[in-house]
Design a protein that fits this description.
Structural class: alpha+beta
Helix content: 55-70%
Order of helices and strands: HHHEEH
Largest sheet: 2 strands, antiparallel
Low-confidence stretches: none
Shape: globular
Number of domains: 1
Mean pLDDT: 80
Radius of gyration: 13 Å
Number of helices: 4
CATH class: Alpha Beta
Number of strands: 2
Oligomer: single chain
Strand order of the largest sheet: 1-2
Distance between the termini: 37 Å
CATH architecture: Alpha-Beta Complex
């Protein structure tokens, strides 16, 4: 199966990306924001990049329960 077809068939990819960020913890994500100004997640299989600024991060974390490490 080629990469394009794999990416097309992946269901709820955005949900997976959005759920991955809280798994890092708010402190770690805030450190990335402070250092780089945004959080970028690269999906090398689908050749897709997801960019999140501080407002997007706030929205993602406001929809999730606290992460326990």
């Amino acid at each position: 199966m080629n990469n394009y077809l794999q990416c097309f068939l992946l269901e709820d990819l955005d949900i997976k990306v959005h759920s991955m960020l809280p798994s890092l913890g708010r402190k770690e994500v805030d450190n990335i924001l402070q250092e780089y100004g945004e959080v970028i997640i690269n999906d090398n299989i689908c050749n897709q990049s997801y960019h999140f600024d501080a407002l997007a991060i706030d929205a993602i974390f406001s929809k999730t329960s606290p992460t326990i490490h």
